[in-house]
User: Fold this.
Amino acid sequence: FFRVLWKWNKGVKTCDSPMMDEQKLVLVTQCCTALFGADANARKQANEQLTPLCRVESIPQLRIILEKANNSYAQYFVSSTLLRLVTDQWNALNEANKTELRAWLLNIVATMGPQMERHNLMNVIQVLCRLTKLGWLEIPMCPELPGDVHKFFLGSNNSDHIVIGLVILNSLIGEINQVAKNHTLTQHRKTSVSFRDACLFDIFTTSLLTLQRIRADPSQGASRLCEQGLGVALSCLTFDFVGIFPDDSTDDVGTVQIPNSWRAVIVDPATLQLFWDLYAILPPPRSTECIKCIVQFVSVRRSLFVCDDERKAWLGHVLIGMLVVLRKKIGLDNEENYHEFCRLSSRIKPNYQLSELVSAAAYDEWVQRTAQFTVESFMNWQATSSSHFFLLTLWARLIASQPYLKGDKPSRLEAYVPDITQAFIRSRLEMAAAVVQTPDCIDDPLENSDVLTTQLEHIPVLARSCYEQAGPSLLALMAPIMQEFQNGTSITQVTEEVNKKFQILEGQLAWLVYIMGSIVGQHGGGAASAEAERTDGDLTASVLRLSQIVMEKRVLMPGAMASLTLRRLESAILYVLQHFRRVHIGESTVPTSRAFTRLHELLGLGEDHMAVSNLMVNKIVSNFKVWRACGPIIGETLHLFSDLSCAYSSGRWLLKLPSIRYMLENHHGPEFPFLEDQLNTKHRSEYYRTITNLFFMETLAEPAFDRFMLPLRNVCHSLEGIVQIEAFRQPSVKRAVIGLLRDLRGICGACVNRKTYALLFDWLF
Assistant:
């Protein structure tokens, strides 16, 4: 049949409507079936024989195949080919061809749609909508598609036609909302705005009428009519109304720019109540779609409301709807519903001021039940961890707005935030234990820096708002765990059970240290209070004690250096030092923080920043030796070293430390074995950039620079003595060359002005 089909294709010359007898249709159908079959040779031959049909001139033949072939593969081939032709060969079709093709597609959907398989019907509808979108501004018939759908589909008594009509509208909204690859952003915006003004509101009201029918007859909740009705409503509400956010219109943009012409329907409480009612009666995933629509309602722009009273009334309806869900836990046993409800909660504050929330009649109960819901969510972290970000976002935004709260009515946030903070911290400790006990069932956020950063983003705001409670609470949680950790370091016989216990303790300590670091690094505007600075000192002192235990005892235990949890704990300690440096030893900070006084009282350090800086440098040098075989730890340590020395004033302070003086004089010596480890080759440039930057802060004298470069000169001389080309293929020589070039690259990176570059240039040449 391939040979017969080839002869038939060879005879296709024009786009005149050809006749296709039954034999040819059977051959094409067989070829389409082979194209999607398992036999690779048959697929290749079928592709070669069907290629002539993938041209604009062959559209009439494709139409005949779709009309007459009952084969699913043939329908899929034709619909996908038409979509590609309409998209890629748009300019090759004249207006008459486009208009005729549009009418034919609409007829095919109406007559064959109910019998077609769902994916093939969706493909044909996509072709129709793509053609409509591309021709919206140039073909008069294209903007009439929504009207045709209302007339021929939605007005029908056939339920299948009504569903197909909604599918067309939903697909059309999605097609208009995304930029076509052969459209500029300006063309897209013109099309989008024209569609919004001419059709979108009518489509939205149609979806509301459909949903009202479903509310009156809940038995249709599982039907495709319900699915498509909610889909159309959600597509309308997430539409890019301004035509400039085509990629983000359905995500958390923040404010929904509903047109003024929609105001009467949007602000009508009955519209919002419709979705609350549907959420209560529909099963998932339809109920999830309802919550998504409510999220968009909550996010409508402020200017849509004509007065404050109207806006307050609207907010009251939102809070009451949320309270009904919270009181009865409606739908919250479903994970998707739970997630969307948390997302809804996070949208409250960005769109309403705290004073507006506090003045609402339902606020007191809402804040109490939301706090209880948040605590329960944290304690049930196994099922709700993906939603915690939204809840933390809500509370962080509420707390951040409290200083600007006007009026006599209190926000009562201080009554709930300590419990929420405590619940979050305890949930992380439980998670650390569960990750070790059931490693295949739980993803550890400590393994993913992005997830970890997200979880730590808002907790400092909560903790700082109740620092007098959160600080001591953290220390109380950490003390027994650290004591047990210290006691365990005296064990001489390390069994599998001991290793597992250490993994749990190290995971829990890592979480506590990360949380402490994020809190210490969170400084509000203006000067911090004396008590807050002292608490910073308490938390930092606890971490420094833990660091001492790790470096003096834990790393000496058998197999300790291979422990992933110990590496994560070390990363957490460096995280704390980095945040403490930024807040208390930064370029713009005054080194008189009371945190230094507290560190002096607890650890016996000096009462100024120099003692802490010296401790950090000693920690950096120790890491270079102890963790030389762990590339990530070396990288984080170098990052701390670089940040500590990059600022002019802090760099000048470091030059006064004996450890830095020794490092400048012995930067390439055996004291820094990590330089010789192949895993750390990529870190050599950053190390030498930092060391050279410190050197240039002290002097620009050429003799001193020659002494500084002497170790590298010796490497050059040793390489110069190699005369056999084969010797350069030896691994040791390769490492020496690569290391030398990376070192020079780092030194060159520190040469940021004419004088320093001239020193390096003269040394090289």
User: Anything to note?
Assistant: The first helix runs from residue 2 to 10. The two ends are 75 Å apart (CA to CA). Residues 1-18 have pLDDT under 50 and may be disordered.
